[in-house]
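Tokens for PhoD-like phosphatase metallophosphatase domain-containing protein. Go.
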Amino acid sequence: MESAGRRSRWLWWWGAVISGAVIVGCGGNSSKVEEKLAVSRIAFGSCADQSAPQPIWNAIIKFDPQVFIWMGDNIYGDYKRPFRFFGKERTIGPWKNVPRFVPASHQEMEAKYNIIKTTPAYSRLRRNTKIIGTWDDHDYGLNDAGKEFGGKNSNQRLLLDFLDEPHDSPRRKQAGVYASYTLGPVGRQIKIILLDTRYHRDPLSSDGTILGSSQWTWLEKELKGPASAITLIGSSVQVISNLSAVTRPLFSMESWGRFPRERDRLFKLIAESKRNGVFFISGDVHYGEITRYDCAVGYPLYDITSSGLTQAVEKVVPPSLHFIVRFLAWLTPSTMRVISRSCRHKSCTYGQPNFGAIEIDWDATPVALKFEVRDINGLPVTGVHIPLSELHAQSTNSVATVAMGKHQRHCSLEVSLPWIVKYRLAIFFFCTVAVLLLAWLGLNFAAILVFRACLRKCKLD
């Protein structure tokens, strides 16, 4: 016999089917039919290697979401050459002669999508849950790629086939996979806006555009359109965090922070739209965290990052060394990360496989929001519980003094940190390398002295 939660799921699903179910806006077209039942549980995730075990689907099914959102890297469609400093194919160093990543063929990409789609647990999720999504670089076709990638049109068709997008969908005719969905009855509507941060994106070092002119026009229309209780904006790369500002020159991650003018334009558009209840979800970075920015739109903007479903930073090192990864995560300065005592680790990041969970209690007074990153067993590892009224510009004025006193760190961007704080990870790394090098030289010198002393003793004897 089905549980009460499962029966509720079927009521929601069939209510959606009977009533027309979905408001979908793709490009300049939209079909607007309201749903009768409110959406109260949304799950999302990113970074699913089709060749890796995927037990996390069982935890997502147990969460029983009404909607699941793919946030990108839904497959790993490109191939990665090994690190090689020397030899015929050198993939690292100033002398490298071949790229580290190479794209797969159309047939190979299709086969990889099919592996995910036919995974038994994911198939169960598809039967009972509305699946939507966007892409990131590895399912776009090539690591860190933007508008220059030649296979994007062919791979767009593959992604939309994977998401079961209708063949007559306007999304199949536009340049890019961006889309919007409005779910729920009037007064309890959730607008989901999924961005395409790949198809139109300029090179990473350009500070050019991420979305391109046509997508910006579409996004402005969506944000300035009819109001909704909640507006969820999905970006495959992080919007709030800019850890590249504090991890260079060791490594750099993609984010909106790498395109500061675009991010400022996004914040300005949200503010000008006077839209309340906006927050972001994102993926890409192979760990989970929640970030917050208080000084953009008149109320706190949250970004819930979940990454990945199979890929995670702690999986690339032996379990005995996980403490090092967690220490470095704590050491890396982040002005935007939400730090809470309820976090499983002190850094409030989570480097094991995870998924994002959003719960809305529409019957609470005021309406309550719960943002969480959950582990492979479905247990929360970091989370934020707030009233929806906190995401209203007019409501923050009354608590501005308290909020700014408590969360002032969420108004200081990583790029504005003092240099000794900003680069403390690099300072720690190079100092550690220097100490280890000196220790190695010292041990070698001591060994030479001991050898010479033994040699002299042998000669005297």
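The CA atoms of residues 129 and 420 lie 48 Å apart.
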